[in-house]
Amino acid sequence: MLPSYGWIGVISHILTTYQVICFGLIRSPIMPWKELDHNIFDVALNIISLLVTIPIAIWTIARCRQSWELALVAVWMTAMMVTQGRMAIHAAIANRLKAPLDEMYEFVQRTPVRSETTLDAIGRPFWWLILYILGIVFGLVGIFAIAIKQLRAGGQEAQNVRIVTGSFGGFVGLMVLIGIIVICCGEGQDMGAAGMGSAFVVGVIGCLLAAFYSDLIIAAVANYWSGAPHRHRAAYWIFFMAKRFPLASV
User: Fold this and answer.
1) Which of 33, 116, 158, 240 is least surrounded by CB atoms within 10 angstroms?
2) Pick from 80, 73, 79, 68: nearest CA to 2
3) Cβ pair 70, 5 in contact under 8 A
4) In the 8-state DSSP scheme, what is residue 31?
């Protein structure tokens, strides 16, 4: 069983990114206007998700051991899954501690506290993204190795790789150009929160592009764009659905 790839992989990464953003903001994925407040349920849900997905992920890495490139991609996807799970648990715990911590600060300072107080005290869920960034580094090494190997082999698959790489390269170049224009137009101005927000958006888009590129490169090499599994279908779909359990966090 390969890691999710093709258009199924693209859909999976969109859902995962949405979940990560919600948990980073301590919001419910199914009701993003609402903060997480069912802490025990949310923690249990995410622990179950990890208990189901981690063994399957380890099994996938073991099956890819004869191809170090795919093994690195599987490690990347595992890092993404663990990051999502830890962020969800962190967000649930952060919200559970919010009330007593806020009361403590109000008692000590004798002043109303800002909503940031609790997160400043226990850390923000977004810090777990460092683990995912490390996974991206490993995964892209594997993906680039796969692409180069296929380009040397030639054939229809090599043409597919050229199309995917050229398309993503052009899009990234356009993004860099737009970024340079925005920086030049804003030079000398205090960007403040707007600058931080722009950096966050760029980071999210960058992570998504890396994930989409990996999905489509593997599909290009396999010349099979949907990514639907041929073998081990039960394990594949159990893994896919278990990763979506955190969507029910409320």
Assistant:
1) 33
2) 73
3) no
4) S
Cα dist from 34 to 31, 83, 188, 219, whole Å: 6, 22, 37, 37
Please give the Cα distance from 102 to 115 (Å, whole number).
8
Q: Is residue 127 part of a domain?
A: yes
User: What contacts 237, CB < 8 A, 6 or more positions away?
Assistant: 229
Domain total for the chain? 1
Could you please report the per-residue DSSP string of 81-99?
Answer: HHHHHHHHHHHHHHHHHHH
CA distance 134 to 128: 11
pTM above 0.85, yes or no: no
Is 222 part of any domain? Answer: yes
The DSSP secondary-structure symbol of 245 reads G
Give per-residue pLDDT as tens, 2-51. 567 888 989 999 998 898 888 888 888 888 888 887 778 888 888 899 89
User: Measuring CA to CA, how many Å separate 240 from each of 79, 148, 225?
Assistant: 15, 29, 17
Residue 161: closest CA among 72, 243, 225, 74: 225
Using only C-alpha atoms, what is the Rg of the chain?
21
Question: Tokens representing 113?
Answer: 């506290």
Q: How far is CA 134 from the centre of its chain?
A: 12
Whether 10 is in a domain gets the answer yes
